[in-house]
Write a structure and sequence with these properties.
The complex is a heterodimer of chains A (613) and B (350). Among the domains of chain A are: 109 residues, no CATH class; 158 residues, 3-Layer(bba) Sandwich (FAD/NAD(P)-binding domain); 137 residues, 3-Layer(bba) Sandwich (FAD/NAD(P)-binding domain). In chain A, 29% of the residues lie in helices and 19% in strands. Chain A contains 23 helices and 26 strands. In chain A, β13 and β14 form a beta hairpin. In chain B, α7 links the parallel β7 and β8. Classes of the chains: A alpha/beta (613), B alpha/beta (350).
C-alpha cells in the first residue's frame, strides 16, 4: 500500500519513469557540489584550506594549496580565479567568497620554518630517467616539482637567467613582489634540478638527440601580436609590443616612458601595461579597446584597479593609423564602431560613420594578444601540427604525437593563465611517470577521495555550521600617492589575519556534503521544513525536466545536479536541488533518525608517483 | 535542540505574496522541539497557509496553553501577537481577546493533553459559543514534555515503548461535532498537501474551526504498535475529500461535477471546492458525518479531510451584539457615555 498526495491509500503503483537514484559513490558527484574545487583547473580543495585559515592554521592551509597549485603566494595575488564565479555564495548572496585573496592570507601568514620543514627533500636515489623541461615557467616548474622527489633527473632550460617564466617577465612587481616568486621557485630549485638558465633552445631535434626519456615543452606563448596599420614602420621607435616591454621593465632595461601613453588592447596584459606606464612617467595614460567594456578580456578587478589609477578605458574604437611627424609618433587615429548582430545572430563591429578620433601621445603599447611560436621545432620530429600551426596535444595526457614529447601551459593550447599551466604540469608529470614506468599514459590514476562524517554529538559538528551573513570584505590597498611613484611597490596589502578570518567565515563549507540514507528516513518532513533555502522536496518521481518544475522551489539552474534518493516507503523520492544549499547542516540536525549526515568530501587529484605507490 | 539560528540566506527565486512577504518572513525562532516532531511540520504548514493567504503577520494573534504543542507559536509568525496562557486555559483567554478585538485572526494552538484533559471544559465551551477562531489540536496521544505518558486521545490498546493504553480515547472531532462546531477537520502533520488547504479554509471560516492534526511524537509514540505513529497513520489514513481553497473574487470555473464535488461558500466570499474521495460522504450533514466517523474509527481507520462545514454561520459577536470596533480604539465618550445613559440602562432593569 502507499499513500497518494491527497491522503488516500492505494496499491503501490508500478515505478514511475522518473530519475534514476543518484550514484554518490562516483567521486564526480560530490566533487561537483564543491563548486570552487570543481572549477579550479588544479582542483585545489578550497573549503578545506579556508577552514584552516579560520582556525589560524596558516601553514597547513598553505601546504594544502602547495600540493595542488604549487604557487600559492603567486596565485593568491595573480590568479585568474575561475573558482570565484563558480562560488555558491555568489548565488545566495551578492558576491562570492574572496577565495584568491584568502590563499594569499595563508601564504603571507604561514610559518616559514614550518613550511620549509614540510617540503619534499631531494630524492635520495635516482631512478635513472632523464627529463628535459623547456622553459622555467609555472608549467615546467610544476613538472619539476612532481618528478624530482621521485628520483628523476630533471634538466630545466630557459632563455632568461632566472626561473619563473612569464610570472617574472610579464607580471609587474607592484602586483607580484619578487620575493614571493623567488620563495616559491626556490622550493622547487631546492629539489636540485639541473638548470640551464640563459640557454635558449633553438632545435628540438638536437634536444631529442640527447636521448632524454621525455621532453616537456612549457615555453609559453612568447610572441606578442603586432598591429600592422599605416605609420607602424615609420613611428616604430615609440611603438612597443606589450609583453616585450613589460619584460624589459621587469629586467630593468626600461625605466621610463613618455608623458602621454596610449595602450591598445583590452586584456590583462593591457592592464599591466597601462598601470606600469603610470609608474614610469606616464601622466596621461589611455586604454583604447575595439570591443565594448563588458566584452573586454581583462578580469573585472584588473579593470577596476586600472581605473582607480586614473586610467580611462575607451571602448568601440578601432585603431586606423599611427600619426607621426618625420618618424616621431604624435598620436593614433581611431574609427568609431558599434556592435551589431547580423542575420545569423553573430556580433560584428561596424563603423558608426562618425568622424575618426585622434589620441595624441608620445608612446604606444600594443597589447592586442599573444601567439604561440615554435620556429625551433622541426616539422620532421614526429610532432603533428594543426591548421593553426599549433602542435596536436591530447587534452588529458598532454602528450603530443611524438610519445616522448609533452606540452603544457600556454604552449599547449594557446594563452590561458598560471593555474591552467600548473594543472597541465601535474597531468604531464603523471603522463611522464607512466611512460617511464612502461604504462599506458591514457589509463589515468584515480584521485584520493575521502568521505567522513562530521558528527561529533547530537547537534555538534566538527565544522562551524553557523553561516556568516557578512558581505565580501574589500582588500585594503596602499595609498595611490605612494604606489604610483614606485614600480615595485605592491598595491594590494592583502587581508590581515582578522579580516582573513571574517572573510573565511563567509565560506559555506560546500565540501561538507549532505548525504542521505533512504533506509533510515521516516518521511517526517523535518529536513524540508527547516531548510533555509528550500532545496529539499519529497515528491513522486518524474523525469528530470518535469521534476525540476515541481520542487519546493523550482530548480532552474541546470548546471547544478538534483540529488535523487531511491524510492521511499510512500513511493515518493527525496529530491535535493544542490544549487543553493548553504551546507548549514540543519537538515541533519533536525533529522530524528540520522537519515541525513554531513560528511566531509576530500579529493586530491592523482599526482605523479601514484601509479607505483 | 538546535543551537544555531536558521540562516537568513534564502533561495534567490522566492516569490513575494500580495503583501510583499516571502514564506521566510512568516517564520519564528528556531524550534526547540525534538528533531522530527510532527508539530514542526504543522508550524511549517501554518507558515505556508498564512503566506498563501497574504496575511500580514501583525493581524494574527497566536494563543496557546502548556505542552509541546503550546510552545510552537514561538516557531512561526514571529511578528504576530502571542499569549502563552495557563495549562488548558487558552480557550478562555482567546475568547476574551476576541471579544475585545475582533479584527485579528485568532490561532489557538493546543495539544491533546492541553485540550482533552485539563482543558476539556474550556474546549467544550469555546466551541459551543462559536468563538471565531482556528483551534488547532496538535495530537500525538502522549505527554511529551513529561516523558511520554498516554494522553486522553490515545486509542485503547495502543502501545508505547513501555505501556499499553487501557482507557477509551476522547475523539475531539466527534466531540466538536456534538458541541456544534461549524468547521471540523482532521489532518496529518506528514501530509502538508492536505493540511495547508485545510488551514487556509479554517482561517477564512467564521466561527469555531476545529482542526485535529495527528502529529507523531517521534521520541515517545512512534513505535510500530502505536496508532499515532507515522507508519500507522499513513497506512490507515482515509481522506474523505480533497479540498481546494478558492480565494474571494477568484473566478470559479463552472465545470465541476456536482456528483463528485461539493462547493461551499464562506462568509468572506471564498469557496471551498471539495472533491469527494468517499462517494457516500456528506460533509454538510452533521448527523451522518458523526456516524460515518464513528463507523470508520471502529474499523481502525483514521478519517481525515474536511469532515464537516456549515455555510454562512454566526459567531459569538453576532450572538452578543457586541460593538464592531476593537475596544482599544473606542474613545472615552463611547466607553463612558455619561450618567444619563447609565440611568436609562438601570431603568431597563426595573
Amino acid at each position: 500500500m502507499s499513500v497518494t498526495a491527497d491522503g488516500r491509500t492505494v496499491p503501490a503503483p508500478a515505478r514511475r519513469p522518473g530519475m534514476a537514484p543518484t550514484d554518490v559513490s562516483n567521486p564526480n558527484y560530490f566533487h561537483k557540489v564543491v563548486d570552487c574545487q570543481w572549477a579550479c583547473p588544479a582542483h585545489t580543495p578550497v573549503p578545506e584550506y579556508i577552514r584552516l585559515i579560520a582556525e589560524g592554521k596558516y601553514s597547513d592551509a598553505y601546504m594544502i594549496n602547495w600540493q595542488s597549485n604549487v604557487f600559492p603566494g603567486v596565485l593568491g595575488r595573480t590568479c585568474d580565479r575561475p573558482c570565484e564565479p563558480a562560488c555558491r555564495r555568489g548565488r545566495v548572496e551578492e558576491e562570492p567568497v574572496a577565495i584568491c585573496r584568502l590563499k594569499r592570507v595563508a601564504a603571507d601568514s604561514k610559518d616559514m620554518a614550518n613550511v620549509a620543514g614540510r617540503m619534499p627533500k631531494p630524492a635520495e636515489k635516482q631512478n635513472g630517467k632523464r627529463i628535459a623541461l623547456i622553459g622555467a615557467g609555472p608549467a615546467s616548474m610544476t613538472v619539476a616539482r612532481d618528478l624530482l622527489p621521485l628520483g628523476y633527473h630533471v634538466t630545466i632550460y630557459d632563455q632568461d637567467p632566472f626561473a619563473g617564466g612569464m610570472m617574472r617577465t610579464q607580471i609587474p612587481k607592484f602586483r607580484l613582489p619578487e620575493t614571493v616568486l623567488d620563495e616559491e621557485c626556490n622550493y622547487i630549485l631546492d629539489l636540485k634540478p639541473e638548470t640551464k638558465f640563459g640557454e635558449k633552445i633553438t632545435s628540438l631535434k638536437s634536444l631529442l638527440a640527447q636521448n632524454y626519456d621525455a621532453i616537456f615543452v612549457g615555453c609559453g606563448a612568447p610572441r606578442g601580436r603586432d598591429l600592422e596599420i599605416p605609420g607602424r614602420e615609420e613611428a616604430r621607435a615609440n611603438i612597443h609590443i606589450g609583453i616585450d616591454w613589460l619584460s624589459s621593465v621587469s629586467f630593468g632595461h626600461t625605466t621610463s616612458i613618455g608623458k602621454r601613453v596610449v595602450v591598445l588592447g583590452g586584456g590583462n596584459t593591457a592592464m599591466d601595461c597601462c598601470r606600469t606606464s603610470r609608474r614610469l612617467g606616464g601622466e596621461k595614460v589611455d586604454v583604447v579597446v575595439r570591443s565594448g567594456f563588458e566584452e573586454m578580456k581583462a578580469s573585472p578587478w584588473e579593470k577596476e584597479d586600472a581605473m582607480h589609477e586614473d586610467i580611462p578605458i575607451h571602448n568601440f574604437l578601432v585603431p586606423k593609423e599611427f600619426k607621426h611627424v618625420g618618424g616621431k609618433l604624435t598620436g593614433v587615429v581611431f574609427e568609431k564602431v558599434k556592435a551589431e548582430r547580423d542575420a545569423k545572430g553573430r556580433r560584428n563591429l561596424v563603423p558608426t560613420g562618425e568622424p575618426d578620433v585622434l589620441f595624441e601621445c608620445d608612446d604606444v603599447l600594443v597589447a592586442v594578444g599573444q601567439e604561440n611560436a615554435f620556429p625551433w621545432i622541426e616539422r620532421d620530429v614526429g610532432i603533428e601540427f594543426d591548421k593553426w600551426d599549433m602542435p596536436v596535444v591530447d587534452q588529458v595526457t598532454m602528450q603530443s604525437t611524438n610519445p616522448k614529447v609533452f606540452f603544457g601551459g600556454d604552449a599547449a593550447f594557446g594563452p590561458k593563465n598560471i593555474i591552467w599551466a600548473v594543472a597541465h604540469g601535474h597531468e604531464a608529470a603523471v603522463s611522464i611517470d607512466l611512460l617511464c614506468n612502461g604504462e599506458d599514459v591514457k589509463v589515468r590514476p584515480s584521485p584520493l577521495v575521502n568521505l567522513t562524517s562530521q558528527k561529533m554529538g547530537i547537534h555538534e559538528w566538527s565544522y562551524d555550521n553557523d553561516v556568516s551573513l557578512d558581505l565580501r570584505f574589500k582588500v585594503p590597498h596602499a595609498p595611490k600617492e605612494l604606489t604610483l611613484k614606485d614600480v615595485s611597490m605592491e598595491v594590494e596589502l592583502g587581508f590581515n589575519r582578522e579580516l582573513g578570518f571574517k572573510e573565511a567565515q563567509r565560506c559555506l563549507n560546500c565540501d561538507v556534503e549532505t548525504v542521505f540514507a533512504e533506509n533510515l528516513c521516516i518521511e517526517c518532513d523535518a529536513c524540508a521544513d527547516i531548510c533555509p533555502v528550500d532545496c529539499i522536496t519529497f515528491t513522486p518521481n518524474d523525469p528530470e525536466p518535469v521534476l525540476r518544475t515541481h520542487l519546493q522551489a523550482p530548480a532552474a539552474n541546470l548546471s547544478q545536479d538534483l540529488y535523487v534518493s531511491h524510492d521511499l516507503k510512500t513511493n515518493r523520492v527525496m529530491v535535493k536541488d544542490e544549487d543553493v544549499c548553504v551546507h548549514c547542516g540543519l537538515c541533519a540536525e533536525r533529522c530524528p533518525t540520522g537519515a541525513w549526515d554531513m560528511k566531509k568530501f576530500y579529493l586530491e587529484t592523482a599526482k605523479a608517483g601514484s601509479c607505483h605507490k | 535542540m538546535t543551537y544555531i539560528a536558521k540562516p537568513k540566506l534564502h533561495h534567490p527565486g522566492l516569490v513575494p505574496n500580495k503583501v510583499g512577504f516571502t514564506h521566510r518572513d512568516y517564520e519564528g525562532s528556531i524550534s526547540t522541539l525534538c528533531a522530527g516532531c510532527g508539530h514542526d511540520s504543522i508550524s511549517a504548514a501554518l507558515i505556508q497557509a498564512c503566506y498563501e493567504l497574504d496575511i500580514e503577520p501583525y493581524k494574527v494573534a497566536k494563543l496557546s496553553g502548556i505542552g509541546c504543542s503550546s510552545k510552537t507559536p514561538d516557531y512561526f509568525l514571529g511578528p504576530a501577537h502571542g499569549f502563552n496562557s495557563v495549562h488548558g486555559r487558552m480557550p478562555s483567554v482567546l475568547t476574551g481577546a476576541n471579544l475585545a478585538n475582533r479584527d485579528l485572526i485568532y490561532l489557538g494552538v493546543s495539544g491533546d493533553g492541553d485540550s482533552a484533559s485539563i482543558g476539556l471544559g474550556q474546549f467544550a465551551h469555546c466551541v459551543r459559543r462559536g468563538v471565531n477562531m482556528v483551534y488547532i489540536c496538535e495530537n500525538n496521544g502522549v505527554y511529551g514534555l513529561t516523558k511520554g505518558q498516554f494522553s486522553a486521545t490515545a486509542d485503547k490498546g495502543s502501545r508505547s515503548k513501555t505501556a499499553v493504553n487501557s482507557d477509551s480515547p476522547i475523539d475531539l472531532v466527534s466531540l466538536a461535532l456534538v458541541l456544534g462546531a461549524t468547521f471540523v477537520a482532521r489532518g496529518f502533520s506528514g501530509d502538508k498537501k492536505q493540511l495547508v488547504p485545510l488551514l487556509k479554509a479554517a482561517i477564512s471560516h467564521k466561527g469555531s474551526a476545529i482542526i485535529d492534526v495527528i502529529s507523531p511524537c517521534v521520541q515517545f509514540n512512534n513505535n510500530p504498535q502505536s496508532t499515532k505513529s507515522y507508519d500507522f497513520v499513513r497506512e490507515h489514513n482515509e481522506a474523505v475529500n480533497r479540498i481546494d481553497f478558492i480565494e474571494p473574487k477568484a473566478p470559479i470555473t463552472a465545470d465541476y461535477d456536482a456528483g463528485s464535488t461539493t462547493m461551499v461558500q464562506q462568509h468572506d466570499g471564498s469557496y471551498l471546492k471539495l472533491s469527494k474521495l468517499h462517494e457516500d460522504y456528506n460533509p454538510t450533514d452533521r448527523a451522518s458525518a458523526l456516524a460515518y466517523i464513528q463507523h470508520h474509527h471502529s474499523k481502525g481507520e483514521v478519517l481525515t479531510g474536511l469532515l464537516f462545514v456549515e455555510e454562512q454561520t454566526d459567531d459569538l459577536h453576532d450572538a452578543l451584539g457586541t460593538v464592531a470596533k476593537p475596544l482599544n480604539r473606542l474613545g472615552e465618550d463611547a466607553l463612558c457615555p455619561g450618567s444619563a445613559k447609565l440611568a436609562d440602562l438601570n431603568a431597563e432593569y426595573r
